[in-house]
């Protein structure tokens, strides 16, 4: 059976980052191509209806807000739920071996996210989408910890 993973779309070269760019992760892309891994691309922020580019956002006291103080919490949570629904339809945590997600993001950050001060300071915590994935039993990892050998069968 083909291995199936979920990946932040920006890591695979999609220009969906808040600033309109991507976070292309060559080792991840090449490992997926080499092993024939099935990749489900997600961008919860786009799934929630936010434009690209968009204002930088961080989690401030449990609510996702832009650098201008505007709440985008509804869009982030809607997008996270839509991304989760896609994962569930693709077989759930039983079939998806890992979710490899963009570090520090207010959606996809695993273990460390920006602290809500827009100063570049990190704090312990997870993005909105990661919290949802963990509650539903998915294995998540930040892209910075990806090892190509994990896709070798």
Which short descriptors sum up this protein?
four-stranded parallel β-sheet; 153 residues; 8 strands; two-stranded antiparallel sheet; alpha/beta; 5 helices
Our Rg estimate from Cα atoms comes to 15 Å
Number of strands: 8
What order do the strands of the largest sheet run in, or round the barrel if closed? Answer: 2-1-5-8
Number of helices: 5
pLDDT < 50 runs, ≥5 residues? none
Helix content: 25-40%
Q: What's the N-to-C terminus distance?
A: 10 Å
Structure notes:
The chain is built from 5 helices and 8 strands. Helix 3 packs parallel to helix 5. Helix content is 28%, strand content 22%. A hairpin with a 7-residue loop joins strand 6 (112-114) and strand 7 (122-124). The mean pLDDT is 97. The strands form 3 sheets. It has a 4-stranded parallel β-sheet with strand order 2-1-5-8. A two-stranded antiparallel sheet has the order 3-4. The protein has 153 residues and is α/β, with parallel strands linked by helices.
């Amino acid at each position: 059976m083909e291995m199936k993973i979920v990946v932040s779309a920006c890591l695979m070269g999609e220009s969906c980052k808040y600033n309109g760019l991507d976070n292309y992760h060559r080792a991840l892309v090449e490992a997926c191509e080499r092993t024939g891994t099935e990749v489900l691309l997600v961008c919860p922020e786009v799934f929630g209806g936010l434009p690209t580019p968009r204002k930088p956002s961080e989690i401030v006291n449990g609510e996702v807000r832009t650098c201008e103080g505007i709440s985008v919490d509804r869009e982030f949570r809607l997008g996270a739920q839509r991304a989760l629904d896609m994962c569930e339809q693709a077989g759930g945590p039983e079939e998806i071996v890992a979710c490899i997600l963009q570090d520090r993001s207010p959606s996809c950050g695993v273990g460390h996210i920006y602290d809500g001060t827009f100063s570049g300071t990190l704090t312990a915590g997870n993005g909105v989408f990661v919290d949802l994935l963990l509650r539903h039993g998915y294995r998540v990892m930040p892209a910075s910890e990806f090892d190509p050998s994990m896709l070798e069968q």
